[in-house]
Amino acid sequence: MPRSVNAVASRARRKKVLKQTRGYWGARGNVLTVAKNTLEKGLGYAYRDRKTKKRNFRALWIQRINAGARLEGLSYSELMGKIHAKGLTINRKVLADLATNQPEAFKAVIDSVK
Predict the structure, then answer these.
(1) Dist. CA 23–CA 29, nearest whole Å
(2) Averaged pLDDT, 9-29
(3) Where do the domains of the chain lie?
(4) Whose CA is closest to 20, among 3, 41, 6?
(5) Contact 30, 18 (CB under 8 A)
(6) In sequence order, which residues have a C-beta less than 8 Å from that of residue 70 and are 6 or more positions away?
(7) 3-state class of 21 per DSSP?
(8) Residues 24-71 pLDDT 10s
(9) 34: which of 23, 27, 39, 68 fits an S-S bond (Cβ 3.0–4.6 Å)?
(10) What is the pLDDT of residue 4?
(11) How many CB atoms lie within 10 A of CB 65?
């Protein structure tokens, strides 16, 4: 009896990898073994950097809130302390958006906690 190798599934698996690495430079996009290694590395970076992106955005929001708060004579830590003491449930993303795009609304938030 001849050996069964299931070439259809093997080819599909290879095509899936090569499709994901399309556009990569040189052998990384068209040689299976190199493409597989590159793809695994890239997916690992993607997983790691989805977490890093959240960290970077939080830092950006804090910088924007701090800049807006200092225009009103408060530091970031003082402002956040007063917001928590008042029991306001407004997150950093919204505060940063107010500080950059709607300074009068941000000033109203600061006045409510002063």
Answers:
(1) 6
(2) 95
(3) 7-113
(4) 41
(5) yes
(6) 76
(7) coil
(8) 999 999 999 999 999 999 999 999 999 999 999 999 999 999 999 999
(9) 27
(10) 85
(11) 24
Distance CA 11, CA 34 (A): 16
Q: CB of 58 within 8 A of CB of 64?
A: no
Give the C-alpha separation, 8 to 4, whole Å.
Answer: 11
**Any idea which architecture 7-113 has in CATH?**
Orthogonal Bundle (1.10)
Tell me whether residue 109 is exposed, middle or buried, using C-beta atoms within 10 angstroms of its C-beta: 0 to 12, 13 to 18, 19 or more.
Answer: buried
Per the listing, tokens 């940063």 go with: 96
Tokens of 36: 């597989």
Q: In this structure, are residues 41 and 48 in contact, taking their beta carbons and an 8 Å threshold?
A: no
